[in-house]
């Protein structure tokens, strides 16, 4: 039986009323356990993504491969196509993923796709040996499809589990988990690839991590507070009251026409695309840049390539706390906070990338510092555009994330291909300069678009169907 809760302790919510934290809100509760599971999912998922960016150096260069008994493939000429093929699959299920998360819950879809990706990771060495570059591309497309469920599910999770006054810090923590996974993957992949086990061990390692997460999600994961048998009545009431939960808001149809004609949505898409382009340009190319321009060996390469993501991970949490504090203290509006942090996350890294383009091969310290700035301060975006989907439409956050994330991930395909267009000699600093300056230009343009046209207000179409039903 449920306990009676004094609703006077709660502040009712509406679209434009400031939300005041209730007195009885549990400091640590089951919403944090669910957030931790989503955090771990992002951590492991980015390990799968990043592992190949480091491993492909050892897979294709006999001089780097640590175990002579393990084959290498120096004849491969489509390395950037292999890296970008992940995003061809990643784009495909985004909107469908948002639909199933809202309609059926995300838990079992996430468990299933993570299990499949773990198996594909285990099979990667065999895929490379027997099916070559084409097989690797197909495998990466399939892994991309598996990960296409992640961010729409995260956005839906934030909309049904996390009160608005906690959303920046919890949302930024979940979304920056991928950068923690990136940090971990860059280091551990470099160490494993340089060990006597050779490069296949890294693929096996992340396969085990993925299956381990599935077990935790099966035991502890729930789609909604209403389904969680362990949650306290106080916490459940706190979440539902803060979110203004109703069955109508959960079940209403997605107003795609209004979404597609919404200026703030397209501004959000621009910011997300720009951030993704810069991120994937750096992530897919840092190991090669460090190896060929800075002359780092594989162990050192993995370590120094990972350092920017450690800073990103730390700053992501700090920016999230600061953003929530500024909004809750009414220092700035929600929309202004999103634009401030988004500008920090795109414009300062743009300056660092331009400077990196003029760094000489003997200036390794300067190069690492600039990479730390370019990647680390990008964490501010996760208190900017990354949580803006839920700001614009809590009822359709998953669909909005699916739409924006799906289109924005075209930059993940384009970024490695643009590198292939610009770079013909991996030891030519002028060619690397062009790559970094292009990424900086994309940051500046997309940041400007978001600052001019972005919004932090709930859009009218968020509850349009519900309001129309009420009038009937």
TrEMBL record:
Primary location: membrane
Organism field: Ceutorhynchus assimilis
Amino-acid biosynthesis recorded as keyword: no
PANTHER family: FI21844P1-RELATED (PTHR11662:SF280), SOLUTE CARRIER FAMILY 17 (PTHR11662)
Disulfide bond as UniProt keyword: no
Bilayer topology term: Multi-pass membrane protein
Limits of the Major facilitator superfamily (MFS) profile domain: 35-458
SUPFAM superfamilies linked: MFS general substrate transporter
Single GO MF annotation: transmembrane transporter activity
Location(s) in or outside the cell: Membrane
InterPro entries in alphabetical order: MFS, MFS_dom, MFS_Na/Anion_cotransporter, MFS_trans_sf
Stated name of the protein: Major facilitator superfamily (MFS) profile domain-containing protein
């Amino acid at each position: 039986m449920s306990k009676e809760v004094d609703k006077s302790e709660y502040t009712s919510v509406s679209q434009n009323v400031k939300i005041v934290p209730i007195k009885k809100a549990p400091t640590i509760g089951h919403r944090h356990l669910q957030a931790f599971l989503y955090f771990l999912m992002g951590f492991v998922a980015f390990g799968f993504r990043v592992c190949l960016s480091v491993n492909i150096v050892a897979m294709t260069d006999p001089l780097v491969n640590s175990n002579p008994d393990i084959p290498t493939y120096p004849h491969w000429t489509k390395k950037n196509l292999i890296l970008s093929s992940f995003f061809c699959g990643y784009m495909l299920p985004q909107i469908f993923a948002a639909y199933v998360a809202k309609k059926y819950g995300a838990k079992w879809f996430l468990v299933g796709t993570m299990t499949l990706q773990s198996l594909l990771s285990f099979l990667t060495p065999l895929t490379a040996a027997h099916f070559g570059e084409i097989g690797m591309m197909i495998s990466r497309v399939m892994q991309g499809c598996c990960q296409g469920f992640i961010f729409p599910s995260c956005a839906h999770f934030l909309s049904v589990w996390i009160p608005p006054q906690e959303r920046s810090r919890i949302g930024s923590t979940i979304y920056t988990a991928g950068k923690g996974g990136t940090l971990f993957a860059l280091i551990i992949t470099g160490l494993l690839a340089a060990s006597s086990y050779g490069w296949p061990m890294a693929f096996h390692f992340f396969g085990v991590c993925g299956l381990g997460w599935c077990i935790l999600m099966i035991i502890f994961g729930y789609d909604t507070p209403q389904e969680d048998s362990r949650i306290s009545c106080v916490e459940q009431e706190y979440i539902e009251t803060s979110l203004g939960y109703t069955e109508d808001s959960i079940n209403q149809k997605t107003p795609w026409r209004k979404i597609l004609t919404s200026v703030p949505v397209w501004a959000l898409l621009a910011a997300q695309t720009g951030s993704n382009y810069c991120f994937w340009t750096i992530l897919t190319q840092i190991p090669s840049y460090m190896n060929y321009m800075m002359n780092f060996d594989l162990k050192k390469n993995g370590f120094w390539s990972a350092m920017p993501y450690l800073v990103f991970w730390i700053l992501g949490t700090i920016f999230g706390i600061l953003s929530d504090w500024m909004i809750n203290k009414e220092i700035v509006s929600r929309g202004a906070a999103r634009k401030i942090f988004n500008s920090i996350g795109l414009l300062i890294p743009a300056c660092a990338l331009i400077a990196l383009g003029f760094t000489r091969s003997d200036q390794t310290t300067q190069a690492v510092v600039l990479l730390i700035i370019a990647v680390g301060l990008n964490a501010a975006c996760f208190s900017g555009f990354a949580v803006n989907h839920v700001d614009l439409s809590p009822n359709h956050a998953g669909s909005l994330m699916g739409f924006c994330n799906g289109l924005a991930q075209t930059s993940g395909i384009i970024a490695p291909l643009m590198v292939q267009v610009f770079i013909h000699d991996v030891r030519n600093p002028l060619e690397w300069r062009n790559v970094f300056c292009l990424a900086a230009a994309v940051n500046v343009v997309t940041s400007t678009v978001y600052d001019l046209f972005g919004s932090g207000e709930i859009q009218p179409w968020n509850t349009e169907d519900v309001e129309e039903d009420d009038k009937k």
